[in-house]
Design a protein that fits this description.
It is built from 3 helices and 17 strands. By secondary structure, it is mainly beta.
């Protein structure tokens, strides 16, 4: 028991809690943020790769509350705001998994905002390193092979999408020149069911290469589902499936 306690304390010590007050002030000003049992985030205590860190967000919105946004935040990353998820009436009970980049050990947070402007938060510490920077061969054909191809799987009430894209962060260096590779990421993913928006994911540089997103499909979602993707070069990609 003592060993487990010491290990837990060490894990928490490696993620610096002193960063959050400054991030919170910049992103949310002096607005109060409450902890809520209906909102959680989970992930590994130690990631095997800082470039592909799996996290899962669960939101079970109370009956009398409608959620508008979910923000994903990584305290110690160069850009702390990792993603914003715009919710609709078809995504109020959200179970969403994605993969993020982490530059160093950090608290990873999820903040939800309801339509009244109230904020709720959950946070976990994760140990990881080197996910946002490092060296890459920008001319490696594998990085852009099948660019924009959207891989989709619908199984057991979950929809999984993976988009072929290098997602250059702007902080990575080219092996040949040593210069920084310009930022080039998947910026927005929109899911539409029968002309009604289900979910919008707005991504920043902290999302992994070949962006991955898996979420539980509301029972009301049936028939045609359109997935639309846009990157920072203005390129658009889409995929149509039937649920």
């Amino acid at each position: 028991m003592i060993t487990l306690l010491l290990t837990s304390l060490q894990l928490r010590a490696d993620a610096n809690p002193e960063l959050w007050p400054y991030i919170k002030e910049r992103l949310f000003s002096d607005r109060p943020i409450a902890e809520a049992e209906f909102l959680t985030i989970s992930g590994p205590k130690r990631a095997s790769s800082g470039a592909q860190v799996p996290v899962t967000i669960k939101l079970d919105s109370p009956d009398d509350t409608e959620m508008k946004y979910v923000f994903l935040i990584i305290d110690a990353n160069p850009t702390q705001h990792a993603a914003t998820y715009k919710l609709t009436n078809l995504s109020q009970e959200l179970e969403l998994s994605t993969r993020i980049r982490m530059e160093t050990d950090s608290f990873v947070r999820v903040v939800a905002e309801d339509t009244a402007g109230k904020l709720y938060m959950s946070a976990i510490p994760i140990r990881a390193s080197g996910g946002c920077s490092g060296y890459m061969d920008v001319f490696d054909p594998e990085l852009t092979a099948n660019l924009g191809k959207i891989l989709v799987k619908s199984k057991d009430k979950f929809l999984t999408t993976r988009i072929k894209h290098p997602n250059f962060t702007g902080l990575q260096k080219d092996l040949a020149s040593g210069g920084y590779i310009p930022r080039w990421i998947v910026e927005e993913i929109i899911y539409v069911n029968n002309e009604e928006i289900v979910l919008v994911a707005q991504n920043k540089i902290s999302m992994s290469q070949d962006p991955y997103l898996k979420f539980k499909v509301n029972s009301d979602i049936k028939g045609a589902l359109n997935i639309m993707v846009r990157d920072t070069k203005g390129q658009g990609f889409s995929k149509d499936i039937t649920i």
